[in-house]
Amino acid sequence: MSKKKRIIVITDGDEYARKTLDYLANELGGTCLSYLSDNPTVVTPDKVIRAVLKAKEEPVYVLIDDAGIPGVGAGEKVLLALKDHPDIDIIGAIAVAAHTKNMEWTRFSFAIDRYGQLTANGVDKEGVSIPEIGRINGDTVYSLDQLDLPIVIAIGDIGKMHGNDDLKKGSPITRKAIELILERGEQFGSIKRKSPSTE
Questions:
Q1: Which Pfam families does its entry note (predicted)?
Q2: What does DSSP say about strands 129-133 and 121-123: parallel, antiparallel, or unpaired?
Q3: How deeply is 98 buried, as exposed, middle or buried, from its count of CB atoms within 10 A (0-12, 13-18, 19+)?
């Protein structure tokens, strides 16, 4: 019996998110399917599943984005297909906040504000804490909240947050979110992180 492919879902697919996740996959290990991401998502669930199953390194980072489309958009259809696949295991998700008009929301395990601090409060697109405890608004989180995922980390807009998550700084907020998911994966023996470079 083959092992399931472990993936991390990120609910953002714009250019900043693609560049950030490509960089962090190289730094932390894994395969980023940034070439399949878009804003909004246009790729089919079948194509994403095939790419996940062919990926050589884990975790596999899958970026989905509904760009404000209400309800279950193309990105969330990909999410649901991944969750239902018998050979794929979603080990965690990064829920990205947005100024969504349709007020989709999701609960989360932890949030990280734009200063890198863990908080029980939600965060907005700029990574600023909001009064809401335990949930955030986002474009692509409607179905995320319906799934029983091991860990969901809420953050502001990837690669932005008033420059605090800039790629030139190593995207520390997004990096911390991934590290929290990987630490949980290590704790339960589902995945191992890339060893730090000795160069």
A1: SpoVAE
A2: antiparallel
A3: buried
Please state the rounded mean pLDDT for residues 166-175.
97
> Could you tell me which residues come within 8 angstroms of residue 52 by beta carbon, excluding any fewer than 6 positions away?
5, 7, 33, 60, 62, 82, 88
Q: How far apart are CA 103 and CA 76, in angstroms?
A: 15
CA distance 159 to 187: 28
The domain segmentation of the chain, as residue ranges, is 5-187
Kindly report the backbone phi and psi dihedral angles of residue 10, in degrees, each rounded to the nearest multiple of 5, phi listed first.
-120, 125
Q: Which of 142, 144, 150 lies closest to 183, judged by CA?
A: 150
* Tens digits of residue pLDDT in 94-121: 999 987 655 678 999 999 999 999 999 9
Chain centroid, CA 13 distance in Å: 10
What lies within 8 Å, CB to CB, of 39 at 6+ separation is 12, 13, 14, 15, 65, 67
Give φ, ψ of 85 to 5 degrees. -75, 130
